[in-house]
Specification:
Layout: H1 3-15, E1 18-21, H2 28-41, E2 46-50, H3 53-65, E3 73-77, H4 78-88, H5 90-93, H6 106-118, H7 120-129, E4 132-135, H8 143-155, E5 159-163, H9 179-183, H10 204-212, E6 222-224, E7 233-237, H11 241-248, E8 258-262, H12 265-274, E9 280-281, H13 288-294, H14 304-316, E10 317-318, H15 325-332, H16 346-357, H17 361-372, E11 378-379, H18 382-398, H19 402-416, E12 423-427, H20 428-431, E13 436-441, H21 450-457, E14 460-468, E15 472-474
Parallel strand pairs: 1-5, 2-3, 2-4, 4-5, 7-14, 8-12, 8-13, 9-12, 13-14
Antiparallel strand pairs: 6-15, 10-11
Helix pairs in contact: 1-2, 2-3, 3-19, 4-6, 6-8, 14-16, 16-17, 17-18, 18-19
Length: 479
């Protein structure tokens, strides 16, 4: 840790309770971890909360870099910490929870956890357990989240809130806490000169440009990419699949990471499919696509299991166009499909037909393995393909609903993080807090919200390619 960072971290600790705003890539996570490290050096313990598991993972990595002992820091998501408090003190919370979190009930967990944190006995526990409280990405806090944090801060008075209003892109249900009304009155601003650290050694000019344009990214303002000549920044005219494919396939160094961003889940999946499986779809943490598939999963013994699997496979794999209407129609009617001539996938039709005759989850996994071993096919929804199959395999073993088992699988992802892929297709919402060498914005016309645009642009260390019908847009909140 250099002297400047050490001095800043010590100053931040001394200023608590306080708040600090830092733009993307200027070292907010680094400063947070450094402050926790300085606290730990004095034997003080910190509770660190953020919104996403990607954020938790990033913070833990920085803490390890600074050699912070695990015994002196606890890192978690805000809602997971709330769930843990409610689960431990359900009587005080007035909320009964199951072993598996139902994140659609997050507000209930938070309100219950607020009651827990306000209880005199728990205040004593929190004061004994922690000396500092850090809450990251505070711009994404709802009023309900804020009230929970305020309750924690009443017990852990040395509290530091960190965030950046221009990165407020999460759309949680309920009114949002605001910096002016909710944060600054109780947590005064800690002023700090910021620098574009993320781009050092990669593309410093791109990083400085991203700091410079922040004041121009606001509702109602026009922004024209043709006015900006920055190394690594490129605008490509056209939103047709051919234009986008040319951009997506232009990155030849496969050790470098590329993320292709669009607004809607269906668009993201469509891009990944059209790109032949070269890009893998990043699923949302709850697994909404997988949940939708498993809600339709037939029980073992039902011949429609084969039809379900055929439909699911087509949603995840490039090269199964031969499983067409006539094939799926026969499966729906419990009729054989092996007589169809479908070049290159006849063996897959045989495996699916075997499942029709023997509709078990074990046979489903056999058919899935046949697809996996077929070199001509490309899986473009790896997360969905693996996690859905794992949930079904768990159901075969424990006889519990596949949706419950999927919740277990996805909850594990919250703790362990995602498998790394160097070519990702995603929504901006899912990559917030992450970094990539290159970013492709698939359709500027659908990225008019200034906050989403800023988050998308600032994920890139080396280059950004923006695709659209025109380099000029008028920015609009909520577009």
């Amino acid at each position: 840790m250099d002297d400047t960072l050490r001095t800043t971290a010590v100053g931040l600790l001394a200023a608590a309770p306080c708040s600090i705003e830092m733009p993307a890539g200027t070292g907010k996570t680094h400063l947070l971890a450094a402050a926790a490290a300085m606290a730990a050096a004095e034997g003080n313990r910190s509770l660190i909360l953020t919104h996403t598991n990607a954020g938790v993972d990033a913070i833990r990595k920085r803490l390890r870099q600074f050699g912070v002992p695990a015994s002196l820091v606890r890192v978690d998501t805000i809602t997971s910490w709330a769930f843990a408090l409610v689960g431990s003190y359900s009587v005080i919370a007035g909320v009964s929870v199951s072993a598996i979190p139902d994140w659609t009930q997050s507000d209930g967990y938070l309100k219950g956890a607020t009651r827990v944190a306000e209880a005199d006995a728990i205040v004593d526990v929190l004061q004994t357990s922690f000396d500092y409280l850090f809450v990251d990405e505070y711009q994404d806090c709802t009023v309900v989240l804020h009230e929970f944090v305020v309750a924690l801060a009443a017990a852990i008075s040395k509290t530091v809130l960190l965030g950046d209003r221009l990165q407020a892109i999460f759309t949680f249900v309920g009114p949002m806490a605001t910096w002016e009304s909710h944060v600054l009155p109780a947590f005064p601003a800690f002023e700090l000169e910021v620098k574009a650290h993320r781009w050092h050694g990669h593309n410093a000019e791109l990083g400085q440009w991203l700091l410079d344009i922040r004041p121009h990214l606001a509702h109602g303002q026009a922004f024209d990419f043709s006015d900006h000549q920055i190394p690594g920044l490129k605008f490509v005219t056209g939103t047709n699949p051919t234009a986008l494919a040319g951009v997506a396939h232009s990155f030849r160094d496969f050790d470098e990471s590329v993320v292709l961003l669009d607004k809607w889940p269906a668009d993201v999946a469509s891009h990944a499919s059209r790109l032949g499986g070269a890009y893998s779809v990043m699923e949302d943490i709850t697994g909404n696509f997988m949940r939708g598939q498993l809600e339709l999963l037939p029980d073992e013994g039902n011949y429609l299991l084969a039809h379900w699997f055929a439909s699911f496979a087509k949603e995840c794999v490039v090269g199964l166009s031969g499983i067409d209407g006539p094939v799926t129609g026969k499966l729906q009617q419990n009729e054989g499909i092996t007589h169809y001539a479908r070049a290159g996938i006849e063996h897959i039709l045989m495996a699916i037909d075997e499942m029709r005759l023997n509709p078990t989850y074990a046979q489903l996994e056999t058919a899935a393995q046949v697809i996996r071993e077929t070199k001509a096919l490309r899986i473009y929804r790896w997360e969905a393909w693996n996690d859905t199959r794992e949930a079904i395999a768990m159901t075969a073993a424990n006889a519990e609903p596949a949706l419950d088992n999927l919740a277990r699988v996805r909850d594990r992802l919250r703790r362990t993080g995602r498998t790394r892929h160097n070519r990702i297709a995603s929504r901006t919402l899912l990559v917030k807090g992450l970094e990539y060498d290159h970013v492709v914005i698939a359709n500027l016309n659908k990225t008019r919200d200034p906050r989403n645009l800023y988050v998308a642009l600032s994920r890139a260390r080396k280059s950004v390619v923006v695709v659209g019908t025109s380099p000029r847009i008028v920015l609009s909140d909520g577009s």
